[in-house]
Amino acid sequence: MRKFISPTLALFALLLFPESMHAQAIARTDGAPVPRYHYLFENPRFTTPVQEVEFDGGGRGRYRFQRKEQDEIVLTFEVSGALLSQVQSLFDALNFLESTEDYQHKKDFSHLGSKTITLSRGGRERTIKFNYTDNQSLNRLADIFQNLATQENRFYELEAIRANDPISTPAQLRLLESELKSKHIADPTRFEKVLQEIKLDEGVPLIARNHADRLLLMIRKGQKEK
User: If 0-12 CB within 10 Å is exposed, 13-18 middle and 19+ buried, where does residue 56 land?
Assistant: First the structure.
């Protein structure tokens, strides 16, 4: 079934959330700037050719994406402390700000799309761009950023379908389950609140309510096993 996203919902998202956080230095109460992390994925061959994730050291994040021939959408989200710690540890392992390493593999894989990663910290900033690398720490870092993009895209889709085409909610939950099982969701707890709402929502099909309950149990079990 074709999915319809309300133009009103898209406009609401654009008006409600800040247009850009990347250009601003966000400060702690003591006046010291907090780190800022930025990721941009671009591939003109994809249905969603532009995906951008950015967040600061306090976990305040923004996700921007644009599908072909559609308006740009900008949403905000929060990054958990555990995920922030992983990201910082990977940047530290790379010695990112000090390193001059060119992470791009000697072979060009531009058909996979380009990834641009930026770290700003302590008045310093470094940006790298690559389409493929064999550096494991950088690959893990890129995976986290991309998983955040996948996570926020699924969250947006799920909320839009509930509002505009609730009968399609079961299909969205099947996609979410697949992404959870393949570990393409950076922070599964992001979905706990919305799944709890779906579980109790008589406006969506019963199969979706039951599926939401199972996904909640899956997420909570996964958290206990960490």
Answer: buried
